[in-house]
Amino acid sequence: MNNINSRHIKNKIITHFNHFSKRKFTSDFLPDHLTYTIPKYSKNPKDFDFPWLIGGAPFLELKARFIPEQIFVRSMTPKSEVLKHLFKVYRGILLACSENDYEFLKEYIEPIFCDKLISKLEEFKLRKYTIEVVEDMKANKGFKMFPEMHLYDCVVLKGIYIDRSKNGQETDYSVCNDIEEMGFVSYIPGYLSDPNNFKTKQQAEEKLYSGEFRNIVFRSYCMFKCGLKIFIYDRFGNKIFDYPANYNFNHAAVFECQMIPPPPFKSFSQMETYTEWIAKHKFGIWKMIDLDNWMKGNPYFINNS
Fold first, then answer.
1. pLDDT at 99 over 60
2. Rounded distance, CA 73 to CA 119, Å?
3. In this model, does residue 18 exceed pLDDT 50?
């Protein structure tokens, strides 16, 4: 196994990415609002709490949905380029965990997920644990495994923030769900149904244009398979877990980015459909939302009760 040059990998990460069937699923890895039958897969031991399945994640079949596909087409962004970028972010996050590079983690991970991960890394430091990321040079039947990257599902969401702490509670929204056919879910804030918020033009513009109502979030479900392995050692240099013989090297990562809206029309004579407006959005900065289902999908709403 070879140690990875983390600085070399991290220097490749670009903050702004501008140039750009029916198989059984596990319910733990599902996009929101979907239901499938549940096969068995190996979960981590109860005493090992970390975003890394030591048996590997189950393989998930690829799906295509209309609005996410339209965004790729209209932005002339190849999926392969998005995947390459997200894979670099994925590797960089693993390496940042091994080096306690919290600045990097805060830049590329959603805040709720990041806080939980940093808390776990601090716990490891108190226990004097060390994390090592290595590449198994014999992962593919005795040979080096070249990375496989799959974008197995995409969903477009409207009306919420990527930073979960900025969203209200689930009861504050109405949901318009067209995920199966269109790959689109709209969360409509309750304040839009209150006429008191629209007594003046200024109030109306603040609610319609300044809040989360027009936010578009692109959510990508990725499957990465490569020779990377994480090892965690206790203060005496002993491994705190071993990989099973059937480790499949698959890991499931979820990413989101805040989409950049198109410029508004300057003439009332120009018209477009709602779908066309959404499809004109451009990709923004990507954040990792979950890894190997450690955050249970990282729900958009925090229960403050």
1. yes
2. 40
3. no
CA distances from 193 to 11, 174, 188, 198 (A): 47, 10, 9, 10
What are 191-218's pLDDT values in tens digits? 777 777 777 777 776 766 666 778 999 9
The C-alpha angle with vertex 50 and arms to 48 and 55, in degrees rounded to 5, equals: 70
Q: What does the H/E/C string look like for the chain?
A: CEECCHHHHHCCCCCCCCCCCCCCCCHHHCCCCCCCCCCCCCCCCCCCCCCCCCCCCCCCCCCCCHHHHHHHHHCCCCHHHHHHHHHHHHHHHHHHHHHCCHHHHHHHECHHHHHHHHHHHHHHHHCCCEEEEEECCCCECCECCCCEEEEEEEEEEECCCCCHHHCCCHHHEEEEEEHHHHCEEEEEEHHHHCHHHHCCHHHHHHHHHHCHHHCEEEEEEEEEECCEEEEEECCCCCECCCCCCCCCCEEEEEEEEECECCCCCCCCCCCCCHHHHHHCCECCCEEEEEECCCCCCCCCCCCCC
Domain boundaries, the chain: 2-39+51-291
Give the residue among 303, 18, 9 at the shortest CA–CA distance from 168: 303
Q: pLDDT (tens digit, 9 = 90+) per residue, 252-267?
A: 999 999 999 888 766 5
In the predicted structure, residue 173 carries a pLDDT above the cut 60: yes
Side-chain-side CA neighbours of residue 22 (13 Å):
5
| CA-closest candidate to residue 278, choices 31, 69, 63 | 69
The total number of residues written for the chain in this structure: 305
> Residue 128 is encoded by which pair of tokens?
């004097």
Q: Which residue has the tokens 């206790």?
A: 234
pLDDT for the residue numbered 199: 73
